[in-house]
Amino acid sequence: MDITQTFYDSMASQYDKLFEDWQTTTQQQADILEQIFWESGFDRSAKILDCACGIGTQSIGLAALGYDVTASDISEGELAEAQCRAADNGVTIRFERADFTALERTFQERFDIVICMDNALPHMLSHSALEAAIKSITNQIAPGGIFVASIRDYDTLLAEKPPYSPPYIHKTDRGQRVSFQTWDWEGEHYKLKQYIIDDAETLQVSKFDCEYRATRRAELTELLQSCGCRAEWKFPAETGFYQPIVVAKKQ
Description:
The structure is a single chain. Helices cover 32% and strands 31% of the residues. It starts with a helix and ends with a strand. It contains eight helices and eleven strands. The model has no long low-confidence stretch (mean pLDDT 97).
């Protein structure tokens, strides 16, 4: 099991603690994505693949709006959590364990829309790994369909290479919860430690380790273009989403 699977398997039961209110976030992000879909000419009849679904933050919100959603992830722990949350929300989603660098092993069909949110692509630790992921993902998009993905603003972060992310402090019914990350940079790579501190009834401190490769927007744009997609970037001031989003239409 690689570091990415271990990271998400270990954090699955606590991933929702990264949000002030995970349930509200699913609704808000679904609304943001739906606006992007509409602007690209799609309505709720579109078939969607969320190829890095995690605990279902985007896929559950979209299914609640009426979309036909298939969701996949490499983490068995997060898939199990997502299935429970989908049931709790009364939505039907097809869940599959799949590596987004080899989606063709799991899916025969193509989708109108494929999404890959929350900085999942920079888990690819080399250009060749990222290229394999983009080829795999775009191969699952029907002609005229779109790929929607978000990554951190690495164009800015690579210039500054900050040693940590600003903490999120959320008040809870029984105290407060603080989450933050430390980043140890080595060139374009950084090793991340995710801390979650919860002082509900007893103090609980959790730490999870992972690694990312900072992916510039130009690199991702070029790979999408080489796979027959026309890419456009949208930024938080326009979308209301916390990361830059690329929308790539397959020709």
